[in-house]
Amino acid sequence: MMVTFRNFQRIHLVGIGGIGMSGIAEVLLTLGYSVSGSDTKPSPTTERLQNLGATIYEGHKASNAEGAHVVVISSAIKSENPEIVEAHKRKIPVIPRAEMLAELMRLKYGIAVAGAHGKTTTTSMLSWIFHSAGLDPSFLIGGIAENFASSFAVTRGKYFIIEGDEYDTAFFDKGPKFLHYMPASLLLTHVEFDHADIYKDLEAVKTAFKRLVNLVPRRGVIVAYDGSENVRECVSEAFCRVESYGLSKAAHWRAVEPKFEPEKTRWRVLRNGKHWAGFEFPLAGAYNVLNATGAAAIAANYGVAPEAIGEALRTFKSVKRRLEVKAEVNGITIIDDFAHHPTAIAATLEAVRTRYPGRRLWAIFEPRSNTLRRKVFEGDLIASLSSADQIVVASVFRPEAVPEPERLEPSAIAEGLRAKGKNARQLKDADAIVAEIAPELKPGDMVVILSNGGFGGIYEKLPRQIHAAAGVSA
Question: Is-above-0.85 flag for pTM?
Fold first, then answer.
């Protein structure tokens, strides 16, 4: 159902405290709409929204929907939610978050960043490049961009940069969110089998991305990673111009001569085989060099000079929960990374190796995402985690949500790693992990915590225990 939001005054968001929904709520408040929303419990996010003028309800009750002109939901909301049931009774339109975003994008010139990996960081980079170049972009990102201290902005500029999510839209729309966006241009990073709870296989994933590619009009441009056969297949029948980026000699935009230093990464970009620019930024990892090269290529297509792109990248601060240093205690560095897929885990661990060579690397992994809780990725996980020196695998988060035949077995991951000669163990939860590994940690150790959730408070508990073991007050 297409809904024109300009015809409504009060918009109600179910699950308003989530990163995506809260960003939309702030956008709507900025545009002058009356906003209400509900969530299971209060949080700093809902408190912030309340301070900005939103009406916040704790818990999901039918009465929350009273007075709303439209109700917005995410894919996490089920049909039996009492607010949805009440909205249907009152004939209040119920629409998915993606449709809300599509309406906002129709007010601007939309640029989408999509792909199995790298889209949050790359969307943040592109938004910062446009901002630094004075283009005043609106943006909506699936994470907190540290340069903006926000996941969104609504501005007077004509561009809207959005992270294109391939996950399903709502309980009544199982298609990917990004098919609602109708972008004028697209940056495509990776295409891999992911979201095993939504997609049957890799072919289903590729079909979704091919449909997104076909939404980009002839006047637009697609910048696509050339290091993936899946990506090349998905853009092969695009209606618009396609430019490739990557490491190969055939790439339109080629990253060369990367140098990974303790505090920064430097590289050059060739455009059609000729030197175009030299860049540096404080991020680690070859994958971030690729992310930045793709973002630079899109920006160049909108007239941003290489000098302006270089200055933006030099001052780019990354995204929360992407290789984020959470604590440094007694010479031990604890890093948080939003692990969601075996390929991303492998790239994260490689980035830590290049930034901190020669240091002992711990990987503390919680199978938490819908992808990583499934057995289908068992072999890939063993391979991706094996680059660490010490590996700890926690129990599957909410195992009852995954049918037992499909469910990952953490002990099998640990056993597979030991069979490869790795030091690996399986421990129940954050408390067990902290109790066992804290006494083993030594100055110089790098501890990378891989989870897309709170992981039982391990980010706070582990530094505290290290302090306590050293007799230092945290």
Answer: no
